[in-house]
Fold each of these.
Amino acid sequence: MALIGEADDDEIPQLSTGALDALKEFYGERDSRQRQFEDLKAQAEDDYDGSPLTMEAFTEDWNASQFWYSDATATALAEQLLEGASNDSCIAVVSAPSVFIQLKNIVNSGRYPARPQMHLLEYDERFAVFKKEFVLYDFEHPMRLPAELKGKFDRIICDPPFLSADCQTKAALTVRWLSKSWASPADARELQSARNLNPTGLRLIVCTGERMEPLITKLYGKAGTRTTSFNPEHSKGLSNEFRCYANFECREIPSMKLFESEKTLAFLDIGPLSFGHALVIPKYHGAKLTDIPDDQLSEVLHVTKKIATAVGAENYNILQNNGRAAHQEVDH
């Protein structure tokens, strides 16, 4: 007779071989990520050696609404924040750590000559391994931040963690508090022209769900933000339709295309100064006019004339800027 509480070995639940293998794989991946994280922490403590960083050490927490961008998306967004940046530029990354990782990779690669200041504002304290570049951020307290960050940044990307009006509005308060200016690059150029001032516009990117578009337009409209056709992709997919909003024009985050040929591309400016404001560019890459072969410029004036005729413009300007002193923002 067995005593109460005893059980036959046959009655003890047993995991199948497949379940055991899956469990071993799970713990193996967990331990691997932990080692990666510890290595990254050690690098930060010993001064970063410049080797490429990845998001693999930081597992997503879906309960905290963490969905990392794919490397391609994070890199494209990081490049737009770095375009035209100088050593005096300050970049704030609000709740988008995968973009911050790619910013560090690109800057350390030497692809861009400038080394702007960069800060990651993030709730997840694992990113504190980046020491002085990390700022603990909770959207519930949008302005509970170090005082020295107020009005500091001329380049900002924000990806609010939740698709709610409350979260989006509070994140917008944070962006406004951080911004050096609330004028788009186009508005800054207009102000510079009218008052003979240096343009200091905000370069802003906001990534969030498609259904937030009306609210985003309301919250960031005065900064010149518009919906782009760039679709951010996440490394593990996302059921919600995501959109990218920006207040400047670039090749990776395009606006409405007007004309395209083998040599030439024309599209509407994302922050138009007037009706029909368009950009007409050669596809051949050159930072300045003198860097582009004559045959690659052969269609530019012809296309410009066609657009001016199509919009019925009787009075118009044709501008072509070369170099920072001439207010060139994109090196193309």
Note: Helices lie at 17-45, 71-82, 97-109, 165-178, 185-195, 213-220, 300-310.
Amino acid sequence: MIARYIDGTASKEEVALILSRIPHDGELAEMLGILTAPDIVSEKRPFHHRFLPLTRLAAANDKNSCSWDCELHILKNRGAQFDSWSLLQVAKVNNWLRSAGTPLHNVGRALESQGLAVSRKYNATVTDLDNAIRSGADVIAVIDRNITAGGSPASIPAYHAIIVKGIGSATTVTYYDPADCIDVTVSRDRFAEAWAPSRNYMVTASVGDAYDPHPIEVDDVRLPADLEELVEAIAENAHDVWARARIDEGWRFGPERNDREKTHPDLVEYCKLPEGEKEYDRIMAMNTLRLIQSMGFEITDFRNGLECPDCGNFNHPDYRFCPRCGKKLK
């Protein structure tokens, strides 16, 4: 039924049933908020094998607070001086911590707010974990608690934030589990299986200045031809946004960059930029579009879509019923 709802072929009764359940089912609301592309559920591979789970929630303990508990544990161990109640309010206001859990892309935000240098990486390795720990960093990883608890993988993983304490021998990994407030040692094979659903997501926190960026790898994401045509327009607009901000700050064109005089050679029309600068903007535009797709979202051309006569929502041309209100579409 959910598959039919997503691709717009559900009956009016089925749409009404799902809409009635969304306010009371946080997991259903989260899933439907992400599974927006009509073809996402058509493949047999689980969601987490196809898309980066940036917006999925780490919530596999009683209060859905595993990430928050990990971050507080790290801060306390580092002797940080902070007011936990005030920090909690900041976390809630900024959606770092929601009632249903912490979005994976927000794991580590509380640590950032207390001055720690936080880095995020997907497709990490056990060697990455070991190197980070040896360098003095604290390491949070996100695992599927279904697997570490001895169960089998579910269609939707029970994402759970833990603190990796050490890579012991060639066969074990030790981590702190905030759900039980204990250290747990598991085999590397079990850990690897549990870590895989988050696409081997790790978050490191340290006090060092050695910045080693880990942009999300999207080179294997292929854009539809109609989106590729948008890259140049997005690149040009990105340049205009940057230039407008610079000019508003008092910068002006100059043959060389001079921070004291506030002159910059790139404060010209996009068409007059050197090809190398244009390519930089194109890469930024292309990778942004690829990242959106890699997270499971779809950019839809609604020029031929159907507008719902009741709520005004624009819908995919193949939809029979409006997923927002359930109205039958013409």
Note: Residues 49 and 197 are 7 Å apart (CA to CA).
